[in-house]
């Protein structure tokens, strides 16, 4: 896009008058090296205390089993805990059914190979819900920076191509650069029914960046 910016920093007659405006995108892929698994137990009962005690027994067994796999106890934390009354609707009336107790754990793994074993072990010891698995990288900031650098180079290449087509000279450094939001989302595995052996494929993480830049031309 070729445009005009009549003012720079609020001053008329600034140095960013005639510009070529471009956008650039960058993308870096990397293998994940961390895994977060959210799993737990849901129990129901007419009375809150029995339901809560049943849930506690299941979760204690799950935690002990996960620690038995070699997962440090500090890598297992309660993600959420709730006790909720449950109701049925009969002939338009709300009828109390009992209580639902939900206890979810977040289990952090230092790699990606043990996710299936963690799920199978937890379900074998009382877990009955697995809400999600997220694959991450401990070097995410570095990969994001690489993607941003690639986006800036992409914008520079586009601007140079436009300038060459127009037969004009381009400034070596843009007069303005702003980062814009790329179409980027987390890598997430949504767990459903689990088999006796659960294969989990982490794949690759994708880090995206995008910029808009303005180059002077003459």
From TrEMBL:
<protein>
    <submittedName>
        <fullName>DUF541 domain-containing protein</fullName>
    </submittedName>
</protein>
<dbReference type="GO" id="GO:0006974">
    <property type="term" value="P:DNA damage response"/>
</dbReference>
<dbReference type="Pfam" id="PF04402">
    <property type="entry name" value="SIMPL"/>
</dbReference>
<dbReference type="InterPro" id="IPR007497">
    <property type="entry name" value="SIMPL/DUF541"/>
</dbReference>
<dbReference type="InterPro" id="IPR052022">
    <property type="entry name" value="26kDa_periplasmic_antigen"/>
</dbReference>
């Amino acid at each position: 896009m070729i445009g005009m910016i009549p003012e720079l920093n609020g001053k008329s007659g600034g140095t960013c008058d005639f510009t070529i405006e471009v956008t650039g995108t960058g993308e870096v892929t990397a293998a994940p090296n961390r895994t977060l698994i959210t799993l737990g137990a849901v129990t129901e009962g007419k009375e809150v205390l029995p339901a809560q005690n049943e849930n506690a027994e299941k979760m204690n067994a799950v935690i002990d089993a996960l620690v038995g796999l070699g997962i440090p106890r500090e890598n297992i934390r309660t993600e959420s805990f709730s006790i909720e009354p449950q109701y049925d609707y009969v002939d338009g009336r709300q009828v109390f059914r009992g209580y639902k107790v939900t206890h979810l754990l977040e289990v952090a793994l230092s790699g990606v190979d043990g996710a299936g074993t963690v799920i199978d072990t937890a379900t074998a010891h009382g877990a009955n819900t697995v809400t999600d698995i997220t694959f991450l990288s401990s070097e995410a900031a570095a990969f994001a920076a690489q993607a941003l650098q690639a986006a800036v180079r992409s914008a520079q290449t586009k601007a140079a191509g436009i300038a060459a087509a127009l037969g004009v000279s381009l400034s070596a450094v843009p007069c303005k650069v702003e980062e814009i939001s790329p179409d980027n989302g987390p890598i997430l595995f949504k767990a459903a029914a689990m088999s006796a052996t659960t294969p989990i494929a982490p794949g690759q993480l994708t880090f995206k960046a995008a910029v808009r830049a303005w180059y002077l031309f003459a």
